[in-house]
Amino acid sequence: MRRLAMNLREQRELTWQEVADVLGVHLSTVLAWSKRYSEQGSEGLKSRTRGRRQASGRTLTLAQEWQLRSILVGQTPNQLQLDFALWNRRAVMQLIKHLYGVEMPIRTVGQYLQRWGYTPQRPTRQALEQNPEAIEHWLEETYPAIVARAKAENATIYWGDETAVAEDGHWIRGYAPAGVTPVLVADSDRKIFLILDNLRVHHARLVREWLEGHKEEIEAFYLPPYSPECNPDEYLNRDLKTRLRTSDRARNKSELLEKAEAFMSWLAKTPERVVAYFQHASVRYAT
């Protein structure tokens, strides 16, 4: 991990805070590694025999933590025969006991969830309105056809979405990296295939007219209604909101916007984080 930290700093040109965020350690830890590296070179990155090993005071091993995090992202409690509709602390506590035989206090479960950046989320009320047949048709026929056309026409597939971020009631509109903007067209000579949800504004007359006027450069496709989990941008939105909620509180809308833009700038330099959005079970079809 120490060598990876130095590589992220030197090759990716990340700040030390960004390196700490990627590796899930405290800023002071990576600064200590940097000091040892500057003084001792590669020898300073070797593990020391004295002192307590990282995470040695935790109930779960790092491997168990990664397994749990993957389950919480990719599966629901009822899929694992647990009597919960959503992942709350008590559901996670039962999962830990089921998997590892560990009876963890619910307060400790909450500490793990907080450390991982998990926060309570409102369940969507649209799930019951989904059309399973439409989603199956999208997965089995529509999207593969889009991919085939993109290859044939040397086009690039982008995913678009919108999200609102808030802190203490101050709301702004934020946008995922992909969207119907002239910048996207200017950044590439390849045609753009843009996949969007069915938000009403995406079908507005002005949007349709603009797309018609730029049909040689960009073409829009639409996900099945009420299926945000099929859009990789949905997981970017969740990541952004988690970061905003767990960082220092913004005092006004301007600071909140700065925080959102800082996260997106960091994300642009961290492609492995973007790749992770496509690892969710619902969007692996897009890889």
UniProtKB/TrEMBL annotation:
<dbReference type="InterPro" id="IPR047655">
    <property type="entry name" value="Transpos_IS630-like"/>
</dbReference>
<dbReference type="InterPro" id="IPR025959">
    <property type="entry name" value="Winged_HTH_dom"/>
</dbReference>
<dbReference type="Pfam" id="PF13592">
    <property type="entry name" value="HTH_33"/>
</dbReference>
<dbReference type="Pfam" id="PF13384">
    <property type="entry name" value="HTH_23"/>
</dbReference>
<dbReference type="InterPro" id="IPR009057">
    <property type="entry name" value="Homeodomain-like_sf"/>
</dbReference>
<dbReference type="InterPro" id="IPR036397">
    <property type="entry name" value="RNaseH_sf"/>
</dbReference>
<dbReference type="InterPro" id="IPR038717">
    <property type="entry name" value="Tc1-like_DDE_dom"/>
</dbReference>
<protein>
    <submittedName>
        <fullName>Transposase</fullName>
    </submittedName>
</protein>
<feature type="domain" description="Winged helix-turn helix">
    <location>
        <begin position="83"/>
        <end position="142"/>
    </location>
</feature>
<dbReference type="Pfam" id="PF13358">
    <property type="entry name" value="DDE_3"/>
</dbReference>
<feature type="domain" description="Tc1-like transposase DDE">
    <location>
        <begin position="190"/>
        <end position="256"/>
    </location>
</feature>
<dbReference type="GO" id="GO:0003676">
    <property type="term" value="F:nucleic acid binding"/>
</dbReference>
